[in-house]
């Protein structure tokens, strides 16, 4: 069973609870990606091209504005610039609920990560994304996107929430305040989240998730997840 610490998708239209205890609940759910991170030849996105942004609607009270690491809730439609055909519509998935994802960490294509920075709830944008910041020379056959395709997205943002890897979330898990998370601390937190969630699970699920968390996050293999390893979004100081 795969897991991220913490990160996932919330299959509801309402914003998640403000208390950071719910942040780690997200790791119990698989992340619904819109798309894999885009790459060009050699695995590097070209930097020469830019995303073109047109603001279609801007609320009078435009706050808060999105930043890297924030948890966003949005609807978006995707079109091929070449012929205007629609290849993606978030309203046709997940019973029509808007999509949740963390901004700026590769959970959507690079162009969308760029296009949705500094965006506020209620704002609508039309963006044009060049191939180098979308699916590049390889395209994305599963999504009916040909090679070297320029993409157009119409986006409506509903919510901007503090991301799941915030200072508050880390400190809540770090019971002894030593700026690193032990296996015991994360194990206890998982047990608390399982109890709060109320769903029956086989005991092995806890062990599988715990092992997966350390496999993905304990980069130096010292048996702890440091503040630096935890704060992969680099938008807060720990």
Describe the structure.
The protein starts with 51 loop residues before the first strand and ends in an 8-residue tail after the last helix. It has helices at 110-115, 167-173, 183-197, 203-217, 227-230, and strands at residues 52-57, 71-80, 86-89, 99-102, 124-129, 151-161, 180-182, 224-226. With 238 residues, the chain is α+β, with helices and mostly antiparallel strands. The protein contains five helices and eight strands; from the N terminus they run ββββαββαβααβα. The chain has two domains: 52-162, Chitinase A, domain 3 (Roll); 167-226, EF-hand (Recoverin, domain 1). The strands form two sheets. Strands 1, 2, 3, 4, 5 and 6 form a six-stranded antiparallel beta sheet that branches.
Uncertain spans: 1-47, 232-238
Whole-number total of structural domains: 2
Structural class: alpha+beta
Oligomer: single chain
Q: What level of helicity do the residues show?
A: 10-25%
Number of strands: 8
Written as H for each helix and E for each strand, in order along the chain, the element string is EEEEHEEHEHHEH
What is the CATH domain class of the largest domain? Alpha Beta
* Main pleated-sheet profile: 6 strands, antiparallel
CATH topology tier name of the largest domain: Chitinase A, domain 3
Shape: elongated
Distance between the termini: 29 Å
Share in β-strands? 15-25%
**At CATH's second level, what is the architecture of the largest domain?**
Roll
């Amino acid at each position: 069973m795969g897991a991220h610490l913490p990160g996932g998708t919330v299959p509801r239209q309402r914003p998640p609870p403000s208390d950071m205890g719910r942040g780690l609940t997200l790791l119990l759910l698989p992340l619904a990606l819109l798309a894999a991170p885009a790459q060009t030849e050699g695995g590097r996105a070209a930097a020469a091209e830019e995303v073109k942004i047109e603001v279609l609607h801007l609320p009078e009270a435009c706050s808060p504005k999105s930043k890297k690491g924030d948890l966003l809730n949005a609807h978006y439609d995707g079109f091929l610039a070449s012929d205007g055909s629609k290849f993606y519509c978030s309203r046709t998935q997940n019973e029509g609920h808007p999509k949740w994802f963390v901004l700026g960490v590769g959970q959507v294509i690079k162009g969308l990560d760029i296009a949705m920075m500094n965006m506020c709830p209620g704002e609508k944008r039309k963006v044009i994304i060049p191939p180098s910041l979308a699916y590049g020379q390889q395209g994305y056959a599963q999504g009916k996107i040909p090679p070297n395709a320029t993409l157009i997205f119409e986006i409506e943002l509903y919510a901007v929430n503090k991301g799941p890897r915030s200072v508050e979330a880390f400190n809540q898990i770090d019971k002894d305040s030593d700026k690193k998370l032990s296996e015991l601390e994360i194990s206890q937190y998982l047990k608390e989240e399982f109890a709060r969630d109320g769903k029956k699970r086989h005991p092995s699920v806890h062990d599988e998730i715990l092992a997966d968390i350390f496999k993905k996050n304990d980069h130096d293999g010292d048996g702890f997840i440091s503040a630096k390893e935890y704060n992969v979004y680099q938008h807060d100081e720990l």
